[in-house]
Design goal:
The complex is a heterodimer of chains A (253) and B (266).
Chain A (H helix, E strand, L loop, with lengths): L2 E6 L7 H14 L3 E6 L7 H4 L11 H5 L10 E2 L3 H5 L7 E5 L5 H10 L3 H14 L4 E5 L6 H8 L3 E6 L3 H16 L4 E9 L5 H12 L3 E6 L2 H6 L5 H4 L4 H12 L1
Parallel strand pairs in A: 1-5, 1-6, 2-4, 2-5, 6-7, 7-8
Antiparallel strand pairs in A: 3-4
Helix pairs in contact in A: 1-12
Chain B lengths: L2 H30 L3 H15 L2 E9 L4 E9 L4 E4 L11 E2 L13 H8 L3 E3 L11 H10 L6 E7 L5 E11 L5 E2 L6 H30 L6 H12 L2 H18 L2 H6 L5
Antiparallel strand pairs in B: 1-2, 1-7, 2-3, 2-4, 5-6, 6-7, 7-8
Helix pairs in contact in B: 1-5, 2-5
Classes of the chains: A alpha/beta (253), B alpha+beta (266).
Chain lengths: 253, 266
Amino acid sequence: MPRVISIHSFRGGTGKSNSTANIACLVAKRGYRVGVIDTDIQSPGIHVLFRLDEDNIDKSLNDYLHGQCKIEDAAYDVTPPAILAGDSKGRAAVYLIPSSLNSGDIARILREGYDVSRLNDGIREIIRQLSLDYLFIDTHPGVNEETLLSIAISDVLLVVLRPDQQDYLGSAVTVDLARRLDVPDMRIIVNKAPPSLDRQLVKQKIEATFEVPVLAVLPLCEEMANVASENLFVLCHPEHELTKLLHGVAAYL
Amino acid sequence: MNETASKHIDILRRQCESLLQLVIPIGLILFRERDFKRLVERVLLEVRSLCHADGGTLYLLDADESLRFVIVRNQTLGIDMGGTSDITPAFPPLQLHDPATGLANHRNIATHVALTGEPICIDDAYEADGFDFSGTRDFDRKTNYRTKSVLTLPLKNGAGQVIGVLQLINSMDTGGNVVPFDLDLMPVINALTDLAAAAVEQLVRENGLKEKIQQLQVNIDQAKRARQVTEITGSQYFQSLAAKAKLLREQFAAPQSSVEEAECPV
């Protein structure tokens, strides 16, 4: 049965897209067919992590939402060679449905909006077309119609936040909304925890405040900052503590 | 009983009396003190009083392996820095290792004691071999002071690790003359510094934990939270979505044929 995982953060800069890409990659490494859809239409970026060159993006999610192509035409096989090499059953795959990087396309969608129900149809269709085991939705920060839809259709909602006062209120609102939408499973990932913080203490405090289990407290580390914007950290640093923590998240999902 | 034996018994009796009447009560007071500035001041003043010293300095060992001046007192010169005083010691920290070469600094007596963990008692700083007292001489020249007897003690935690250094200057006899430190008092002084180190370490740990908890304050404006949630959940879109959320999830999980039978527009 396919599982839909939404990854959401209330504010930008939490490392949501990075977490999404790395977790998706580790889930695929376990022999699953994984799709990642970039619904952060206003500021797309996850394609860079999968090394999908802008020039190679012919059709995007924007084209599908405007009725200009089928959703599967906007899906790109971005399976990292390292995943393929380690997949004995020949099933593992990662597909990315990117948002357009064209400023005109971004401006158009901001100006005209789109039919959110079409996003719902597209998600359902791509799961079927590509026989996906998992679909990860990299959402736009904040709350709007498409993020609410993403949350509503999720089997699991991962709320990414930093241990930062500015992230708490918005994350609490997201958690409340997800509860109202009866999301079956909701977890928090605390990202970019400074080394000075006791991670166990962070986990306890966040769990007590939000009444949501914390799936992982990921440390802020220099290595992540170095590779973060252009590569998948878990493949560059397979033995790193952060990779091990992300493995834990993938195993849970 | 000969005179030597009698003197030895007298020393032991004085040590026992000091332990019972001074060290244990002072130790209890130190462990009850929750204010860091008052604690370090109390440590220095009590040890100074026990040794009849004119002055003293307490250093703490920082993570970068330097001794930080925490409190400096000198009765004759009226120096009163650190602790509850408003004046912070303005001296640069003492590096345990030379930053350029990485070599251990055994020339300075305080860093030497921090490095070795062994106390050093010197009867006359100006006559002592092996240590660089040029800084002390400079200080004495400027202040018209004469540093003579110096007792430098490591502050060790329960695991035997040095967490700081306590240095006492110029032990005084009842006539106000500078005399060597009384080595017969060493067991008592050591007992007191062990208790002091444990109390300081405990408070440093407690304060560190408090700081971490403080950093972790998760304050959420509940009124604002409720208002924002109400605004969103009150919208027609949200209510329609909430009504259909379960069905939508079921559609994702269902085989294609059954989905087609039960289309659910958002």
